Amino acid sequence: MKLKSKILLSLLATSSAAFAQTAPAAPETTIAYNIGVVSQYRYRGLAQTRGLPALQGGLDYSNANGTYVGVWASTIQWIKDASTTTSGNVVNVDGKSEIDIYGGYKFETSGVTYDLGVLAYQYPGNTLKNITSTDLENANTTEVYGAATFGAYTLKYSNAVTNLFGFKNSKGSTYIDLTANFDMGSGFTLSPHIGRQAIKGTTSDYFAGGLSYTDLSLTLAKDMGNGISATLSAISTSAKKNTNFLSNKTGYNAAKEDVVVGVKYTF
Asked: How far are the Cα atoms of 65, 105, 148, 180, 185 from residue 151, in angstroms, in the given order?
């Protein structure tokens, strides 16, 4: 299996709750905090913690004029899993956490709510660029996004204005997704989701099978009251048989089907 291909699974398996963390439009100025734990951290369908639990939390500020800012953080494993052996030499890299900083503006017109913003994924102290035998650099990434919500449906488009999660020549990579939120009554919400991650800079013969993929999920959420919510998600991707998504260090398949459970407290 090709070394660079295996490393890139980790690069694509990155990051955050980009759409989940953006603060909702509010009729008044609000500040909300949240803390939670998930059985594993998945982002855009791909594993961030090698199937291990993650501790997560954030802060959201929403102004009555539609502007918002926030920060969200999670423990991760994907950068460490990019560690590899090159020409007999072990190259260990590290990066234990992800911090997302975001802000934007929400407004409504003709029954449609629009959301425009920017999201910076930060990986404090990450040493991904130490793998000098590949086209890698600092994992920090910035995306701009736009979303439109009509009724239960939200369509969102994200565009990387920097290289994507440490992979050189990937500036301009895009993610487009459609999510619905159906109120099932009694505090239950059912949310089907489909997304398409298009990765630039991966068209050479070295990346047999390519790295762009589609992810699917179905999430059942329950509002438990008193700020506590629980979720159960079934997740799949079109890349589950693509060897590019096997971890350098452990062979873990970041794109395989899985089920994630989580609980969050918002106050």
From this structure: 21, 19, 10, 9, 16
- Could you tell me the residue range of the domain that residue 212 belongs to? 3-266
C-beta of residue 190 within 8 angstroms of C-beta of residue 206: no
User: Residue 173 is part of a domain; what is its CATH number?
Assistant: 2.40.160.40
pTM confidence score: 0.86
Task: Look up residue 153 and give its DSSP letter.
Answer: E
CA atoms of 33 and 37, how far apart (whole Å): 14
Cβ atoms of residues 34 and 265 within 8 Å? yes
Give the count of beta carbons closer than 10 Å to the beta carbon of residue 266. 14
The three-state secondary structure class of 47 is strand
Let me know how long the chain is.
267
Per-residue pLDDT of the chain (267 residues; tens, 9 = 90+): 333 333 344 444 444 444 444 444 556 899 999 999 999 999 999 999 999 999 999 999 999 999 999 999 999 998 888 877 665 566 778 888 999 999 999 999 999 999 999 999 999 988 888 776 566 788 899 999 999 999 999 999 999 999 998 888 889 999 999 999 999 999 999 999 999 999 887 654 334 456 889 999 999 999 999 999 999 999 999 999 888 888 878 889 999 999 999 999 999
3-class secondary-structure state, position 266: strand
Domain count of the fold of the chain:
1
Q: Which two tokens stand for residue 19?
A: 């759409």
